[in-house]
Amino acid sequence: MDQFEFTKIAGSVLCALLLIFGTKTIIEMNVGHSHEKPGFELPAPAPAEGAAPAEGAAEAAPVDKDETPEVLALLPKANADNGKAIFKKCQGCHVSEKGKAPTVGPNLWDVVNRPKASFPGFNYSAAMKAKGGDWSFEELAHFLHKPKTYIPGTKMVFSGLPTPNDEADVIAYLATLADTPVPLPK
């Protein structure tokens, strides 16, 4: 086989690969990515009292309902094993073993009923330090729902758990992380 034949074969193989991957890329770019409206809607400032809303202004977003009572009602039947599985999302930033140093977030060993912003060696945000109080079941439910809404200025970037059941299960798991686990309410 001479140089010319090798060049033709190599060119054919490269052309076939380009055709396969090029077609795949074009299909992936065009399939399943339709949007109702392009772009984002920015929130409009609230109209002055008594003034009519500006034409074309978006309606105010619904207020997020407080799911804390629902989470607290679910705690007696919460599943700590399910909470442990859900907690795997948290392990990118938090450790939960006794005696371990904090990582991106504080160590969550013995967090239930611990004072906020109190794990030694972790640099908490000013907002977390100012919040004060202990991590009761109710406080954890508020925080796990939407951390940045509950404590504006927190360093925690997690947006919150999606359902009250998930929140209750994670709280039940956190309650087990102690030398003397905290009993769930009856």
Short structural summary:
The chain contains 7 helices and no strands. The chain has 186 residues and is mostly helical.
Task: Describe this protein's structure.
With 186 residues, the protein is mainly α. It has a domain at 68-176: Cytochrome c-like domain (Cytochrome Bc1 Complex, Chain D, domain 2, Orthogonal Bundle). Helices cover 40% and strands 0% of the residues. The chain is built from seven helices and no strands. The longest helix is centred in the first third of the chain and has 28 residues, at 3-30. It is elongated. It starts with a helix and ends in a 10-residue tail after the last helix.
CATH class term of the domain at 68-176: Mainly Alpha
Total helical elements: 7
Contiguous low-pLDDT stretches (5 residues minimum) are 53-63
Strand content: under 5%
CATH level-four homologous superfamily name of the domain at 68-176: Cytochrome c-like domain
- Mean pLDDT, to the nearest integer, reads 83
Radius of gyration: 26 Å
Secondary-structure element sequence?
A: HHHHHHH
CATH topology grouping of the domain at 68-176: Cytochrome Bc1 Complex, Chain D, domain 2
Please give the largest β-sheet: none
How helix-rich are the residues, as a percent range?
40-55%
Number of strands: 0
> Would you tell me the structural class of the helices and strands?
mainly alpha
CATH architecture of the domain at 68-176: Orthogonal Bundle
| Assembly status | single chain
